[in-house]
Amino acid sequence: MRNGCAGRNMEFAELIKTPRADNVVLHRPFYPAVEGTLCLTGHHLILSSRRQDNAEELWLLHSNIDSIEKRFVGSLGTIIIKCKDLRIIQLDIPGMEECLNIASSIEALSTLDSVTLMYPFFYRPMFEVVEDGWHSFLPEREFELLSSVTNEWRLSYVNKEFSVCPSYPPAVIVPKSIDDEALRRVATFRHGGRFPVLSYYHKKNGMVMMRSSQPLTGTNGRRCKEDSALINATLRAGKRGYIIDTRSLNVAQQARAKGGGFEQEVQYPQWRRIHKSVERYNILQESLIKLVEACNDQSHNMDRWLSKLEASNWLTHIKEILTAACLAAQCIDREGASVLVHGTEGTDSTLQITSLAQIILDPRCRTIRGFEALVEREWLQAGHPFQLRCAQSAYSNSKQKWESPVFFLFLDCVWQILRQFPCSFEFNEHFLVMLFEHAYASEFGTFLGNNESERCKLKLSQKTMSLWSWVNRHQEPSKFKNPLFEANSLVIWPSVAPQSLQLWEGVFLRWNRSSKFLDEAYEEMNNIIEYNKELQAKVNALRRQLAELETDDGMQESS
Amino acid sequence: MPVEVENVKLLDRYTNRKPANGTLYLTATHLIYVDASAEVRKETWILHHHIATVEKLPLTTSGCPLLIHCKNFRVAHFVIGHERDCHEVYTSLLKLSQPVKPEELYAFSYNPKMPKDNREIGWKLIDLKVDYQRMGIPNDFWEITDANKDYEVCNTYPPEIVVPKAASKATVLGSAKFRSRGRIPVLSYLYKENNAAICRCSQPLSGFSARCLEDEQMLQAIRQANPGSPFMYVVDTRPKLNAMANRAAGKGYENEDNYDNIHFKFIGIENIHVMRSSLQKLLEVCETKSPSMSDFLTGLENSGWLRHIKAIMDAGVFLAKAVKEEKASVLVHCSDGWDRTAQVCSLASLLLDPFYRTFKGLMVLIEKEWIAMGHKFSHRCGHLDGDLKEVSPVFTQFTECVWQLMQQFPCAFEFNERFLLEIHDHVYSCQFGNFLGTCYREREVLKIFEKTHSLWPFLLQKKQEFRNPLYKGFTAYKELKPNTLPFSFQFWCGMYNRFDKGMHPKQCVLDHLLNCMSQKMKLENNATDLENKLPFLDGPLPNEVCSLSKIVNASVESSKTPMLNTPQDYESEPPALLTNGAIVEEVDIMPDQDQKNKENFANHHDLPDLNSTMEVIESDAKKEKLQHQ
């Protein structure tokens, strides 16, 4: 999985002024300081100690570096590296020039402009690919699953050149009765061309969840009859549907001035609109920055900590997203109504809501493969702009509007549900943490680009490895499997009371306190369950043996 | 006396869900509510002793509301059809929940129908002498003395106390005169490995300048009982300001100059009044109807509750560290040495000694540091009608500290959270004699050993449900060094919102693992049975003795793992669209296993209110129309 220490990649040679430095001291959480040789390669920062056992070393992907700071005391330089996975490490480098060179190299290498220079394009896997993840969750396959339960939908390739909607995949699922021509017209009426498409089909009662972007009604109430025809096609005769707008009514009204808007009752009489405000953009990023700051400052007393936790608003966002997702799920499962979800662009809060509602409603999404399919469908193919949103993490200095931990919040919400239903998920917390890490920095191509169109142009499926190829390489034993899992086919309603929501320690406190005793508990739990499984298998085997012997006896007697 | 009122509604604390309708009964010991509207008959039992407050709220159209707050943090909101009935229930409950005479307490009438011998053996289950022996006492430095057998040293201490061997009777009696209420320094815990001891007492009557030679000798004797250390700590667990104020009343704290080689230190734990009002604020936050995240966190901060918990934990950690790492003895006191001192000493013992993290150990610890040393349970828990200013959640805080430790060290305790909750319940229930009265002497007068039962054997009977499946045994961890940074403390939903089941995880890992444990026993038996059977039939396991008599079919039933944790009732439940919290524990009158399982993962949720959202939308829409016109 690793490149050699020497600057193998010619492209980066000029960025690396000092490829190695000796007597560098590394400080990191939970480990004693270690001295060694620092090497810079095109994509990694490597520290190897001189110890023979090679135990103490650091391999850090440059793209994982969120920000760096340098300090000098005499000629001893110190570089503090803050990572996107929230870890903070410190390197003491003797020699001012070396230190400055290394710092500027790291800075340059961690902020490469061109995607094609990123590590996934250079990474060669050391594992055997059992199944190519790029083909694991094709829309055609998802559609096949749908076709087995309903024939009211079709797979449309109206967007195969990405000309109708640049952020949609080539194939989308739409009502059978709506032809491609109508889709093209609806696309002109929806922000960014994101016409309503199927997000989820609830087998239990045939209700559906659609998603789109806002309608472009503008101030003069522009309308589009194909648009209402499209969404009405999802309703049963005489039934009403719900439109969940992820903006407050106020924000939605203001959007009209910029050509956007929302569905007016008069034009959509069969739909009831509900506004559930979910925060977006850099407000979320600022929330993340504040939360991580609070977690990292160990000088706080209790009052200060609680007040910082509150002021970060992170848990408020968690509550608001989960509340909206529960609402969507309730409309479908309890009210027996179909739902359309959108905000403005339909690429952020919309996807949080539609994907979490599916976690609540659909047991398949709570399996490892099912969750991968969900991420693929509702995030990657649905055009969540990962590259923009995850460009920087909690130590961002740039504070660009487009940086936003939208996917991170989604994972946190999933963790909250997992905590409330610890036996309903096939995956465990490590799985979610792993996805968080890879969304921000990865050797795999999965989260590169902002949509399918960009991924296509980058030829990611030919030039990079899919994260799913790695995750699914072996079935057992997996460190991502939840030992408590017992498949259940039910809807799981999480509580959104503040008392029920917690700080995701596994991510936010990961580098701030030792998890030794919690890890031991997890291990112990695993052992208890594994032992029982083995016992059960043994009993079953013995029983079979006994039955065989008895039949043999019986046969002997009768013969 | 039995009161029976029909047509009583029980409101769901958080939701607009249709309230239960049923009958309310008052018996001599319990309030019982039988829900007649449910498909399955459900009962809610509330012990009169558990009732903290009863309030009659203003009359509403549906009847007369009666709000009951319990000491175990249950809140029950009844609506009674007729005002007169309501008033009758109200006045009865006021009387029943605040007995005046100790003889009226439940423990004196509680009769589990067991032989007299068993009852007596029950009281002998915990023997503090055995615990001192475990510490190696008596030894060269410490002795168990009956100096207090007639309570001439201190009337709130037990007859037998542990003091340094070097302290003469005159020293003991002299020191008693110089300590508030005669609560002289006695041993709480001896760390056998290095002879460092934790001792406890009350504040000295030092005023601004008073001294007492015997008291100084006493401290010297304690210090010298630990020859490994040249000094000892004297820890005053009060905030400095409070301790200084006490000097004006002729009390105060030790002057470092008057005692040889002591290191004096304040640890600012607040007094019982601050703690009482802090809990009050916390409970208000817990009871808030649909609070925002901000409301909750701000309320949690303003209550100061976790700040106090952290202060107690910090003090415990300081003590444990002094003993273990600095090898120094510590003398701890507050004002009277029966509240903060009890919290801190018992916590330090728990951190230092794995024994106290077992079932038996926690019982010993509570008997030793709380019951024997005169924590005034009766006053702090308000067992009898009395001064409300004496009530304070001191023991609750200790219980929470243990729970916080269990969160950080999930494999270090033999018992689980339910054990703590059960003990906490019984501290208030007055069903057992252990927590009655304020000190040993009072319990003798009350004849609790003759007239009541002890809680501990009763708890041990239910050991299976209280055990921690993750417990790694006595030797896995020695001393615990908890992280006391603020983020390491969590809000204890299981205690303060215990009866709001909708807020708790819907699937319980503990139940799952407990189930695994019993499953394991069955499977192991099955395997042995089968193996015994096989060799007889020429099987491949010749080491086993054959036993024909055992039949295998018993194993069939366990071959299918019960899905204990599957929320199977989500589907059958009436639309829970607009529901959220549950308020009461629901007891089935006919215990049916399935139903019981269902209760384990309550079916209530705190879901957003669709209707109220609608109302907002609709009114917004109307406004919008108006603007258009």
From TrEMBL, chain A:
CDD domains: PH-GRAM_MTMR9, PTP-MTMR9. One of its GO terms (cellular component) is ruffle membrane. It comes from the Eukaryota. GO terms for biological process: negative regulation of autophagy; phosphatidylinositol dephosphorylation. The keyword Flavoprotein does not apply. Residues 133-508 form the Myotubularin phosphatase domain. Keywords: Acetylation, Cell membrane, Cell projection, Coiled coil, Cytoplasm, Endoplasmic reticulum, Membrane. The keyword rRNA processing does not apply. One of its GO terms (molecular function) is protein phosphatase binding. It is a peripheral membrane protein. Residues 518-552 form a coiled coil. It is found in: Cell projection, Ruffle membrane; Cytoplasm, Perinuclear region; Endoplasmic reticulum. PROSITE patterns: PPASE_MYOTUBULARIN. Belongs to the protein-tyrosine phosphatase family. Non-receptor class myotubularin subfamily. This is Myotubularin-related protein 9. The lineage of its organism: Eukaryota, Metazoa, Chordata, Craniata, Vertebrata.
UniProtKB/TrEMBL annotation, chain B:
One of its GO terms (biological process) is phosphatidylinositol dephosphorylation. GO terms for molecular function: phosphatidylinositol-3,5-bisphosphate phosphatase activity; phosphatidylinositol-3-phosphate phosphatase activity. Keywords: Hydrolase, Lipid metabolism. PROSITE patterns: PPASE_MYOTUBULARIN (PS51339), TYR_PHOSPHATASE_1 (PS00383). Residues 122-496 form the Myotubularin phosphatase domain. GO terms for cellular component: cytoplasm; nuclear envelope. The keyword Lipid metabolism applies. Gene3D superfamilies: Pleckstrin-homology domain (PH domain)/Phosphotyrosine-binding domain (PTB). The active site is at 334 (phosphocysteine intermediate). PANTHER family: MYOTUBULARIN-RELATED, MYOTUBULARIN-RELATED PROTEIN 8. Belongs to the protein-tyrosine phosphatase family. Non-receptor class myotubularin subfamily. This is Myotubularin phosphatase domain-containing protein.
